[in-house]
Structure formats: structure tokens, C-alpha cells
């Protein structure tokens, strides 16, 4: 009885913490089966779902979340770059790990895929368990890291929005109230002898005014910096034409 030799994990690459939920997009049943068998040989903990076309892929993306998506370049109703385009613009899969499965001689396709945001590519006719394990493990871990970074950015954006709302409320409600209090104190001090209590109150109102004014400016500067950061982070889809 033949036994499968264990595949060692490449140096410097940590194994994924949980089972990987993967989708294989390939119109060839034999190729899908071969890819799954190679993942088994690599001792990758993967739960597979299959899609035979772009249409089935879109349906699967809407029904389930995937950590990893293998994309064969040649499909009956499109190609792998079009599939990648839809994946990267799907609300639930923009950060999913994607690996393009290309044939030998399709180096330009692999380069286009990487430029368009694909995590990695493997050659269909030269699949190797060690290489596949390195590719899958690195792609999934990087995708999870990107997801964590995006979550942190969303929290930062939410906090900034709260700060802006608070600064706006302070401007609209506290500044008029402080102005009225300062006018009232000045009228009292002009009509009566100067009072140390009035002077202290006026100083407190002035400091509060400066605080609100500074908070408003800080919120505006943070919002401007956030907008500039977001605009520089935007990237295009590369040279591949967008699907109609």
C-alpha cells in the first residue's frame, strides 16, 4: 500500500490557524480533481466548493464567504482575469486570497493577474505540493492580515466620524452659549465693580472657546488627511479590459 509522504512547511511560513474555505473556478472536472488531490498531498486543511463557470462563481460568492479562490484562466464563459475582476469588487471577497492557475507559456497572463491584485499563480502542468503549500499558506495569511488592517481602518474612520460629529455639535451649540456668557460677564463688569469671580468665569469661558475651536480644526485636519490617504491608496484594474 502506497503512503503519502508528509510535506514539510517552508521556512518562515506559518500554517493557517483554521480550516481554509476554498472555491475552485475551473470548467474541467479532471483539473479540479487534480488540484484538490495536490492540496491533500500538501496536507492543507481545506474545505472545497467548485464552480464550473463565471456564472456559478458569482452565485457561490453571494452564498458563502471564501478564504481562498483558485481561478483557472480558461473558462467556457470568460477568462480568469474577468473572474478576478468580479472577485476583487465583491463586497465579501475583495480581500480574499486568489491564486491564478495558468498553463505553461501563459507568463503574460500570470503577470497581468498579479498586477490586477491576484495573490499568486501556479502552473497547472507543473503543480508541486511544496510550492502549492507555500503559495496557499502565504496567500491566505496575507489576505487575513489585509482584512485585519481594513477592519482597523474602518474603526479609525468610525472614530473620526464621531469626532467630527462632536466637533460640529460643539460649534453649533457650545460656541453661541459661550459667546452669550462672555457678553453677560462683560456687561456685569462694566456696570459694577470688577469681580474676581467674574474674571475667573470669563477666563474659563475663553479657555473653553479655545478648546472647542481647536477641536474643530483638529477634526477638519484629520478628515483632510484621511481623504488624501484614501485617494492615494486607490488603484486601477491594470491593463485588462473591464467586462461590460
Automatic annotation (TrEMBL):
Residues covered by the Response regulatory domain: 21-139
UniProt xrefs under SUPFAM superfamilies: CheY-like
Record's keyword terms, sorted: Phosphoprotein
Modified positions (4-aspartylphosphate) in chain numbering: 72
UniProt entry tagged with the keyword Cell inner membrane: no
A GO BP entry: phosphorelay signal transduction system
PANTHER family in the cross-refs: CHEMOTAXIS TWO-COMPONENT RESPONSE REGULATOR, STRESS RESPONSE REGULATOR PROTEIN 1
This protein's name: Response regulator receiver domain-containing protein
Organism: Roseivivax lentus
Lineage: Bacteria, Pseudomonadati, Pseudomonadota, Alphaproteobacteria, Rhodobacterales
Amino acid at each position: 500500500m502506497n503512503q503519502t509522504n508528509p510535506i514539510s512547511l517552508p521556512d518562515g511560513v506559518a500554517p493557517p490557524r483554521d480550516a481554509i474555505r476554498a472555491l475552485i473556478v475551473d470548467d474541467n472536472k479532471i483539473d479540479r480533481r487534480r488540484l484538490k488531490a495536490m492540496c491533500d498531498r500538501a496536507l492543507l486543511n481545506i474545505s472545497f466548493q467548485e464552480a464550473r463557470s463565471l456564472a456559478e462563481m458569482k452565485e457561490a460568492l453571494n452564498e458563502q464567504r471564501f478564504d481562498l479562490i483558485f481561478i483557472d484562466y480558461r473558462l467556457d464563459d470568460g477568462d480568469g482575469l474577468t473572474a478576478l475582476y468580479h472577485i476583487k469588487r465583491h463586497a465579501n471577497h475583495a480581500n480574499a486570497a486568489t491564486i491564478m492557475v495558468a498553463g505553461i507559456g501563459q507568463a503574460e497572463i500570470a503577470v497581468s493577474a498579479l498586477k490586477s491584485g491576484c495573490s499568486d499563480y501556479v502552473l497547472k502542468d507543473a503543480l508541486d505540493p511544496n510550492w502549492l503549500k507555500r503559495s496557499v499558506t502565504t496567500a491566505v495569511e496575507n489576505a487575513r492580515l489585509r482584512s485585519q488592517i481594513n477592519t482597523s481602518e474602518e474603526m479609525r474612520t468610525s472614530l473620526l466620524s464621531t469626532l467630527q460629529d462632536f466637533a460640529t455639535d460643539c460649534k453649533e451649540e457650545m460656541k453661541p452659549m459661550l459667546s452669550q456668557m462672555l457678553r453677560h460677564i462683560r456687561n456685569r463688569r462694566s456696570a459694577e465693580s470688577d469681580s474676581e469671580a467674574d474674571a475667573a468665569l470669563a477666563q474659563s469661558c475663553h479657555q473653553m472657546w479655545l478648546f472647542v475651536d481647536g477641536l474643530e480644526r483638529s477634526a477638519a485636519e484629520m478628515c483632510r488627511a484621511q481623504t488624501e490617504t484614501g485617494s492615494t491608496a486607490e488603484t486601477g484594474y491594470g491593463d485588462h479590459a473591464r467586462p461590460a
